[in-house]
Write a structure and sequence with these properties.
- Chain A: Pfam families: BPD_transp_2.
- The complex is a heterodimer of chains A (331) and B (342).
- Chain A has 331 residues and is an all-alpha fold.
- Helices cover 73% and strands 1% of the residues of chain A.
- Chain A has one domain: ABC transporter involved in vitamin B12 uptake, BtuC.
- A two-stranded antiparallel sheet of chain A has the order 1-2.
- In chain A, α5 packs antiparallel against α6 and α5 packs parallel to α7.
- In chain B, α3 runs antiparallel to α4, α8 crosses α10 and α11 crosses α12.
- Chain B is mainly alpha-helical and 342 residues long.
- Helix content of chain B is 77%, strand content 1%.
- The N and C termini of chain B lie close together (9 Å).
- A two-stranded antiparallel ribbon of chain B has the order 1-2.
- Chain B has a single domain, classed as Orthogonal Bundle (ABC transporter involved in vitamin B12 uptake, BtuC), CATH 1.10.3470.
- Classes of the chains: A mainly alpha (331), B mainly alpha (342).
- At the A-B interface, α7, α13 and α15 of A face α5, α11 and α13 of B.
Amino acid sequence: MKDDRTKRPVRPQWPAWEMTLAALIVAAGVWSTTLSPYYLSLDQIFGSTRFFIIPGLLALGLAMVVSLGEIDISLASTVAVGTVTLSKLSMFGVPIGFAAAAVVAIGALLGTLNGVLAARFGLPSLAVTLGAMGAYRGLAFIVGSEVGYTDFNDSYRWLGATRLFDDIVPVSLLAFAAVAVAVWLLMHRTVFGRYCFSIGLNRDASWFAGVNVVKIKICAYALASALAGLAAVVWVGQYGSARGDNADGSILFVVTAVVLGGMDINGGRGTIGGVVLALMLLGTLRNGMGLANIGGPTQTVVLGVLLVGGVLRPAVAAALARLRRPDNADV
Amino acid sequence: MSAPDDAAVGNRKGSRRAIAFVLRLREAGVLVFLAALGTLFAVLTNTFLTTQNLTTVASSAAILAIAACAQAVVLLTRNLDVSVGAMMGFAAYLTADFAARHPAIAPWQLVLIPLAIGAALGAINGLLVAYGKVPALIATLGTMSLYRGLTYVYAHGQEVTSSRLPPWMLTSVDARIAGVPLLAAAATAIVVIVWAFLQYFPWGRRIYAVGSNPLAAFYFGLRAERVVLMAYTLCGVLCGAAGLLYAARVGTVTVVLASGWEMSSLAAAVIGGVSVSGGAGSVIGAALGAVVLATIDNGLVLLAVPEFWRMFIQGVAIVAAVAADAAIASGIRASLRTRGAK
């Protein structure tokens, strides 16, 4: 018996939600081709990736925090702190390599602060990062004032603005892909990642099993905010400007991507692959809505509906399952 | 730990009194902080302590106090509403637009519109959170963009200018009753009514019960879903009232009206001692928190401090207030342990 079971390979479960997302991406792409004859060109498709790279980096970071059952809504403000810091460094002629490292480090520092407050002192992460959202946004304005800075030289803009291979593939897309693979490996192939999900499922059990819960949580917050620092470097390249209100309001897109990607907002469940697919879906939709001349406010409404729909999905699925098996209603 | 039974009972009574004292202290602490702030600004500037300036502070605190009260009702149930600003904006714009199209409408009829809109929007939030089991932050983040986006769509890039509003709307908010701005009087009345409702009525007590211990409330036979739905609906109604007053105060109603108020209302409530983990605090405290924020705002303006410091200070204040509450809570737990009552 026992041998039988070990010999027989476990049948891999179809990742149903990821498959659905992939199908939806194809559907959204087909819908987009009907909107504009210019949609189906490599240039356009690769160009449209700019819609999700910056929020995508934030979403990958947020996914780590969410896997722990925590939340960090200060990430967009951290991006603004990053961009205005880059503007100051650029003003003093600091080489980009050093400047980028400094901004990522500053991001990690801000994230550590969030992590220490939430994990070490046990404050509710929502309240802490809501406060941090305001405080970091204020900090960005204090550092950068409300006048934008646009005199970035080409080396600062390289990561966000350059396209390789006949001017088609954006460097930032490659960077995003690299980060996505790294985060996937970290979350699904390392001890750190398993600890993250186990803490999200049952914090106390993980603690009794000897997991350093506080350290893991602080690390996740720091990593997420470091990615926000990287997103700031991409931002400067993409938009060529830095101001205190950069990325204001983009947290909605980020949270939507994470939730739609199948991460359980209460922690412990979800995949990085799902988050990446959700990002591609949202990017395709946003690109398509842009082609269809659908205005920004309507896009925001669609985003809000998708967010609520994404969270309601498990509840609706459970309700449908109950309807299908009325005899098991109480289980 | 090993104290005799009767002594333990006596101690438990004592510790309960101590807890009540600490909780009362929390609101007294806000008052002390407010007094300290007032003294600081009075020393640093010579315009702070003038009647005219204090009236300005009272007027701007008034609307925020109502919004903070709305936020507090939801916070008490261990939930959160980040769509407060969007609900205010939605209710304010639709009401102002309606008033501009029907100038002859009677005041009491007009007042009902934002309240009804607020109730509907709040009920949607409540349904999602209570019956849809969607985490409060996610649900209200979604509806925040939904409500704000719908306001944009409805407005078509227009705004309602003050010249199109009925004149009584604009004059009534500047009116005074025996020297007290009507706005402040109305806010005080609303806050006291909500406080009395939460304090003395069964439905109000249920909000505290569900927030402080959902499991105990469940075994007691309370339907948490209904209580949470009611809290969100009440929050929406209060946002509708705040939105109408805000629209009348600023005169020109745009689609971005009250954006960012979710932060301010939350900051005010938390500074006023309403716990984000539910069940503790009062709407009076939340209103006091609003006065603190309005005083800080006013002081910073008088001191000519750039506006962005406000955001920074507000954010830090939220974190500090949450930390203070956590410290008080662990202090209470520690005192219970040393007194031998579990």
